[in-house]
Amino acid sequence: MPDFIHWYPGHIAKAERKLKEQLSLVDAVIEVLDARLPLSSSYENISGLLGEKPRLILLNKSDLTEPKELKKWIAAIEAREGFPVLASDAKHSKDLNAIVKKAAELAEPRIQAAMAKGLLRRPARIMVVGMPNVGKSSIINKLTRSSKTKTGARAGVTRQQQWVRINPQLELLDTPGIIPMRQADQQRAKKLAFVNSVSENAYSNEAAAHALLEILPAEKVNEYYGGTTIEDIAKARNWLASGGKPDIERTAVYVLKDFREGRIGKFILDTFPLPLGEG
Ligand code: G4P
Fold this sequence. Notes:
Number of domains: 2
Structural class: alpha/beta
Number of helices: 10
Helix content: 40-55%
Strand content: 5-15%
Number of strands: 8
Bound molecules: guanosine-5',3'-tetraphosphate
Distance between the termini: 28 Å
CATH superfamily of the largest domain: P-loop containing nucleotide triphosphate hydrolases
């Protein structure tokens, strides 16, 4: 069977270099994951990439998951990674105060260390990182909305980096760090395609919708559409092409869109409990 996702290695090395350059400027990192993929939307070697930086992990798009199920994941990831994990919902601007407070706490030891060397207290600097489409920009926008104090580029930084002051203790880099996709196993790649974290050029809508319908609970799909396969859904919804045949492409696009917007239901697609040795 051919691969589901066709990978274009692109400019991974360049993207990693840029990320490392941004990382060198901050005291702590907010890693944004898609709450529907608490495992699959993280980077295989995130601690290798981020080094010693303290990390706040956000399971964003929490509105698209069941709170009870998400709570279990939060506890499991916290135990595995040894960093705080919070649910976040950037769409509805929830949980922002908790994020700001936690991020400042995580950065504090580095501020204290600098002060112990005789330097004056300075605001902590943080940045947001994550895979495409997990909600990095939305989070930055929400965090900075109430505070538009640009603090300007820092001396010694070659690339122009813009900081926004969130409060007197905290400054946020206004561009997110994009974690480049590496060749992932096909199961993981499929899940990332379902949540729109993979370029749409890399797969066909039909193959993605088909694979999605295979893993969603059939009763939920049936409840929403009155069918469980692309063909049946097309007929049930009257999405037909010429000659009355099911319009497969149009149906596939709708199924993916309905899933991504949470209309079919609230699902976490990774499997609990956490497999050992991941991450
Ligand atoms: P990125 O920077 O990581 O690439 O992601 P970005 O913030 O651009 O968000 C990607 C999409 O996810 C956007 O939808 C955004 O609105 C949505 N999103 C972000 N956070 C949340 C959340 O907590 N819950 C939900 N349900 N959606 C969220 P879009 O359709 O591309 O744009 P828009 O029409 O919503 O603006």
